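Budget justification aside, the reviewers requested a transparent look at the raw inputs and outputs of the sequence design task funded under Objective 1. We therefore reproduce one unedited record. The lines immediately below are the structure tokens for a 289-residue chain.
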């Protein structure tokens, strides 16, 4: 047992270091061009590393109070590092120093969100609760992304970008701020991702298979957003409002379906909810102007 705990903390540390090195270094590689292949591969690598950090954080045997304390510390450090370029002119003048500050702050946000998801996951007492909770969270995420976030962006244009995690693009030339992301991921997505993985670990479900398919689904989701969003302004607005919790819920339920024990009535109710979510998303995408 002690050896297993050491392995969990060791793998967590390795994941954090690997993610940080990629997050800082990727935007500084400027000799590979910025074609579709570079965008797709860099998105896949980013999602693999970010999801790995969340998965390993969710595997830590932390009590809710300890996890919340870790979240508070990570958030405090996040704001200190993220706002440091505004108060230290030297950081703004050096692309490398600025990229390090942004990369470290992004890493801290991923850790803070992971600790919150780990703490909240303790409310789930059995696997059967996890599947309907995932579907409900996907529906709520759609409502928040499509209704609330646009209003926030209109009132405070830079609010989401300030607290979001930026996805770096390998091969892109740095902008004047030293960063050219192909998208941003809100902290809530990492919170729920950690929530799901913490439950997967606690109930001895398929952690490795969930990780593999989660990376494939989320990376494909983001590439889809960038490809379709570049076609027309209408498509750009539509895909920007696609919620990230939908593919998470689908992967979680499909990969771990054998661990759920639903009655026939519960399966019917789940199917109705799933169809409702799919129908709402399809209608919203079609009707957006």
């Amino acid at each position: 047992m002690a050896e297993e705990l050491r392995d969990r903390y060791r793998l967590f540390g390795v994941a954090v270091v690997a993610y940080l090195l990629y997050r800082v270094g990727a935007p500084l590689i400027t000799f590979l061009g910025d074609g579709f292949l570079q965008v797709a591969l860099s998105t896949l690598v980013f999602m693999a590393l970010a999801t790995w950090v969340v998965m390993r954080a969710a595997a830590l045997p932390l009590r809710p109070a300890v996890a919340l304390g870790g979240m508070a510390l990570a958030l405090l450090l996040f704001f200190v590092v993220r706002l440091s370029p505004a108060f230290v002119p030297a950081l703004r003048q050096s692309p490398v120093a600025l990229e390090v500050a942004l990369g470290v702050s992004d890493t801290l946000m991923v850790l803070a969100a992971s600790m919150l998801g780990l703490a909240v996951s303790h409310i789930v007492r059995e696997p059967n609760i996890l599947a309907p909770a995932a579907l409900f969270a996907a529906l709520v995420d759609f409502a928040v992304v499509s209704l609330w976030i646009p209003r926030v962006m209109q009132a405070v244009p830079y609010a989401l970008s300030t607290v979001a995690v930026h996805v770096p693009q390998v091969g892109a030339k740095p902008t004047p701020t030293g960063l050219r992301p192909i998208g941003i991921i809100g902290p809530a997505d990492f919170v729920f991702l950690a929530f799901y993985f913490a439950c997967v670990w606690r109930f001895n479900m398929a952690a490795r298979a969930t990780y593999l398919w989660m990376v494939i689904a989320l990376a494909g989701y983001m590439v889809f957003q960038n490809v379709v969003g570049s076609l027309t302004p209408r498509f750009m607005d539509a895909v920007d409002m696609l919620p990230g919790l939908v593919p998470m819920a689908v992967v979680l339920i499909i990969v771990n379906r054998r661990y759920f024990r639903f009655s026939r009535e519960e399966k019917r109710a789940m199917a109705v909810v799933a169809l409702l979510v799919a129908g709402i998303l399809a209608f919203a995408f079609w009707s957006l102007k």
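The chain has one domain: 2-287. Strands lie at 165-168, 181-185. Computational costs for records of this kind are itemized in the attached budget.
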